[in-house]
User: Which sequence fits this backbone?
């Protein structure tokens, strides 16, 4: 006799924020593209972002648009004993600790740190760009997390804001007004780069269908929106840059 069984519960779909077209409002519009951390370890390696491989077509389409003033990539490039690695502290992966800048001898400005699996170690395959990424169009590559004791999620500066990368200088030298962000992961390096981008005075866009996150909820998206980050889609960028 057949019996009724309930279907297995379905995993919730990833949250996707509302997006908008990019206005042609008569204001100066000098766009740049920043491709964040499209590296092997974040797609198929030790710290994979769910669905990370799926955004490659959108990312490549945007890289190849002719009207960007600059195309810049970021990459994690960690030493083997980086402060973000659980192994460095002999603690469980994804535990949290408090870390301090190496110049903060009195330990006054602690930052909470998630402890990650070892990833994107310098001169290893995990730190390389993923196969198929159109990387010959990049004007510059910004390396992050190169100091063993300093964490850096943002492409602009470390988590304490003490060390600035070349990214703001490159964007300003080229007269960029609007920066479009794609890549991995939406709730970490994309988010923190976008938040800093607003602080530096750029109109800041995250291209939602060219980003994947570790978490599947709305928290990071709301944090970005609350600080002035705007959301759009690949097709809207193509239309605006046609």
Assistant:
């Amino acid at each position: 006799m057949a019996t009724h069984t309930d279907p297995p519960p379905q995993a919730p779909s990833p949250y996707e924020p509302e997006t908008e077209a990019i206005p042609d409002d008569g204001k100066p519009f000098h766009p740049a593209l920043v491709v964040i951390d499209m590296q092997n370890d974040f797609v198929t390696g030790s710290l994979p972002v769910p669905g990370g491989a799926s955004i490659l077509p959108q990312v490549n389409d945007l890289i190849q648009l002719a009207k960007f003033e600059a195309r810049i990539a970021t990459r994690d490039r960690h030493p083997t004993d980086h402060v973000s690695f659980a192994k460095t502290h002999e603690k469980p992966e994804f535990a949290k600790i408090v870390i301090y800048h190496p110049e903060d001898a009195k330990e006054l400005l602690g930052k909470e740190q998630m402890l990650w699996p070892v990833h994107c170690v310098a001169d290893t395959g995990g730190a390389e760009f993923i196969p198929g990424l159109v990387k010959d169009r990049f004007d510059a590559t910004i390396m992050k997390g190169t100091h063993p004791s300093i964490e850096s999620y943002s492409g602009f500066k470390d988590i304490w804001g003490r060390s600035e990368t070349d990214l703001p200088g490159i964007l300003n030298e080229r007269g960029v007004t609007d920066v479009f962000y794609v890549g991995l992961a939406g709730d970490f390096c994309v988010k923190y780069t976008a938040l800093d981008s607003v602080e530096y005075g750029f109109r800041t866009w995250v291209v939602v269908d060219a980003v994947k996150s570790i978490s599947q909820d709305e928290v990071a998206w709301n944090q970005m929106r609350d600080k002035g980050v705007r959301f759009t889609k690949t097709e809207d960028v193509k239309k605006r840059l046609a």
Observations:
- The beta strands are 31-36, 70-76, 96-99, 111-114, 140-144, 178-184, 203-212, 230-232.
- The two ends are 62 Å apart (CA to CA).
- The chain has seven helices and eight strands.
